[in-house]
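Reminder to self: C-alpha cells first, then the designed residues, so the page reads top to bottom the way the pipeline ran.
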C-alpha cells in the first residue's frame, strides 16, 4: 500500500509565522535552536543549530471534540520547504527509537485497539497494517516520550480529510 506523510499545512504555518494566534490564541514563542530535539512540523526535518524556530500550541484536527488533542509543536521561524514522502522513506525528523502510532476514522476519532508504541524501523509496516483496517482513514505519529504530534499519514490516493487553516 502506498501512503503519504503529511506535514503541518501551509496556511497554518504562514499564519503562525506571521504572528497569528495558535490553537489557544497565543502568539508563537520564538527561540534559537541548540541543534537537538527541535523537529519542524512543516518540512519534517530538524531545525539546525542557531536557526530560529517557533513553539506553538496546535490541534491537527478540523474541529474540536473529545479526541482533538492540542499540544506543542515546533516549526522553522523562516520559510522551509517540504518534500513529498512515501512508504520507502521516513521523514528526517523521526530520530527517536520509537513513536506512538494511532489510527483515526473519517470523523477524526481514535479507532480503539490501533494505538501503540512502535520501533522506528517497524513504522512503515505498522502504518500499512493500520491503513489496511477498514475504519482507519489516517494515522498520527506522536512522540513516545512527550506525546507531541509529529505528522499524519494517509493512503497516497486519499485527499487530506482534515484540512484546516488555523
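Designed residues (166 positions):
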Amino acid at each position: 500500500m502506498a501512503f503519504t506523510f503529511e506535514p503541518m499545512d501551509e496556511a497554518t504555518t504562514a499564519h503562525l509565522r506571521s504572528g497569528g494566534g495558535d490553537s489557544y490564541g497565543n502568539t508563537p514563542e520564538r527561540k534559537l535552536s541548540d541543534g537537538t530535539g527541535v523537529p519542524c512540523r512543516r518540512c519534517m526535518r530538524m531545525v539546525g543549530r542557531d536557526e530560529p524556530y517557533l513553539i506553538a500550541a496546535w490541534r491537527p484536527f478540523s474541529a474540536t471534540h473529545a479526541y482533538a488533542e492540542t499540544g506543542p509543536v515546533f516549526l522553522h521561524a523562516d520559510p522551509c520547504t517540504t518534500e513529498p514522502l512515501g512508504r520507502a522513506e521516513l521523514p528526517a525528523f523521526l530520530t527517536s527509537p520509537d513513536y506512538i502510532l494511532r489510527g483515526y476514522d473519517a470523523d477524526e476519532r481514535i479507532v480503539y485497539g490501533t494505538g501503540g508504541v512502535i520501533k522506528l524501523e517497524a513504522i512503515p509496516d505498522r502504518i500499512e497494517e493500520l491503513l489496511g483496517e477498514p475504519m482507519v482513514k489516517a494515522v498520527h505519529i506522536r512522540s513516545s516520550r512527550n506525546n507531541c504530534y509529529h505528522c499524519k499519514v494517509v493512503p497516497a490516493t486519499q485527499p487530506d480529510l482534515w484540512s484546516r487553516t488555523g
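The first strand starts at residue 3 and ends at 6.
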